[in-house]
Amino acid sequence: MDEILEILEKDARRTPEEIAKMLKKKPKAVKEAIKKLEKEGIILKYRAVINKELVKDSNAEVRALIEVNILPQKDLGFDKIAERIYSFPEVASCYLISGTYDLLLVVEGKDLHTVARFVAEKLAPLDHVKGTATHFLLKKYKEDGVILKHKEENKRIAISY
Question: How far is the C-alpha of 100 from the C-alpha of 68, rounded, in Å?
């Protein structure tokens, strides 16, 4: 992978000047390279990894991983049905995977019932969807290579026999 991409992937806050210094290049060359990568659609978005457990927000969303078993369409394969599924606003991510299931979705909703309704009313009834398995995320320990700190430490009493 390109050195500039590797740096930005690890920390998107790096400025072109910092990257230029790290790579012993001119800032102008780095700025032009970044603009080119953005224009070509290689760099799609810059984002922050947020530890939502530490955010004081009563509107915290529920996330679920949903495995989907689908029947591929003749001459179109998985792409057309995947496009239909990832178009739903509840779907944050959609991946074609190997194994028992075909697609892995990351779905977000305001609560468990919202996600369950999405599966029952929107996802499962679609043509070519043969089955689903839903796994709700209970706690995140690490995301995108970043270890997340948690609010409370486990304060269990040690029991010995």
Answer: 9
For residue 48, the 8-state DSSP code is -
47 is a domain residue: no
Total-model pTM: 0.78
User: What is d(CA 50, CA 148) in angstroms, rounded to the nearest whole number?
Assistant: 9
Domain count, the chain: 2
**Are 66 and 129 in the same domain?**
yes
> pLDDT, tens digit, for every residue of 80-139?
999 999 999 999 999 999 999 999 999 999 999 999 999 999 999 999 999 999 999 998
Tokens of 149: 């700190």
Neighbouring C-beta atoms of residue 57, cutoff 10 Å: 8
Q: Is residue 150 part of a domain?
A: no
Please say whether the beta carbons of 91 and 107 come within 8 A.
yes
CA 126 to chain centre: 23
Contacts of 106 (CB under 8 A, 6+ apart): 63, 64, 65, 66, 91, 92, 93, 94
Print the domain residue range for 92. Answer: 61-138
Query: ∠ CA 35-38-39 to the nearest 5 degrees?
Result: 85
